[in-house]
Specification:
With 379 residues, the chain is α+β, with helices and mostly antiparallel strands. Helices cover 19% and strands 26% of the residues. The protein has 3 domains: 3-33 and 167-238, no CATH class; 37-159, no CATH class; 248-379, no CATH class.
Amino acid sequence: MSQYGAYGRALAGQTYRQILSAYYTGTTIGTISAGTQVRVQLAASHVPTAASPARVTARRGGWTSGAFLDSVGVPTVFPADSYVDMVKTANGWEADVHDAGGALLAQTMTTDVTVKPASGATLMEIKWRDTNQSYTLVRGSIRLLVNGSGIEAINILSMDDYLKAVVPAEMPASWSIEALRAQAVAARGYAYLRLKPGSAYDIRPTAANQVYSGYARERARSTLAVTSTKGQVVKYGGKVANTFFFAIDGGATENNEDVWGVTRTGRITAHPIPYLRGIKDVAPNGVAYDSIARNYRWSSATFTMTQLSNVLSKDPRTSVGTLISVKFDRGFSGRIYRATIVGSTRTVSVSGAIFKKVYNANRLAGPELRSTMFWLKTG
């Protein structure tokens, strides 16, 4: 799904169901369990220091943990603004609980403690995330787990609470509600397919998976998009579809095998996925739905054939002596999946992605190639 394309389609009056059906061929809308949870790795192995302790503070409400039980085995409820520190001592790792003033309330030797909200009002504050460090408040629980010489922090929360912080990070909350609903459904299915029950966490909070900032990023419109599509995902053949999305498609999406199944030499090895078929993403008047995007059109600097030859010669994968010609093989959308480079000493084939990377790394001047949807123009 093109996000700008979804926005353009919403402005044209399409519903989120129509938008998703257009981008994911032959799919329907289904649901996943209302109890589905997501575990987000906020920190991989933070080494606590005096300036940056491995601390989680409960805000706006109290918290509990199975690591701290009263005399009859019931989890103790600690007050709002109290916090737990994971501290390495001479005898091992220790979880220390303090009140807002710093007084010690409880402590226990442990390498694994989960801080759980005692009510729906409680938010968890963590100031030592690996990324997005300006977003310190999150919904749900935080598990503190010794990982090597440091502490791994894993945010455990419901799927829809997770999406409340994902959707406005991936798409402007000011956009049409139907575009936001399409984003919410696509993001839900994308996350669902990345749940890993056998691992400590499921997903990272970056563009490597989906951008997840936290409570402060939430907005009313994007939250409405999440709650009004509660549990909904895109399905194909009764199974949750892998709903990839991106910003701009240049007026056409691509077949999956021409994107992810291309070797370094441009050979296609992947099998087609029925619902990831390229489409012409244009309105009936011929205008691309994502043409409103700032980077819909772009161009490189002007260069001579000799200059392009010099650029390609700087990388052993594309060095062919004096450049004679370049032939591009294109997928459904027009994106290049293979570039055949003919030179005075040899002929080589590389993927479109490698050609783009070599050009960008060694170009003489001007902007980078933004995608593999480009054409060489002479004259």
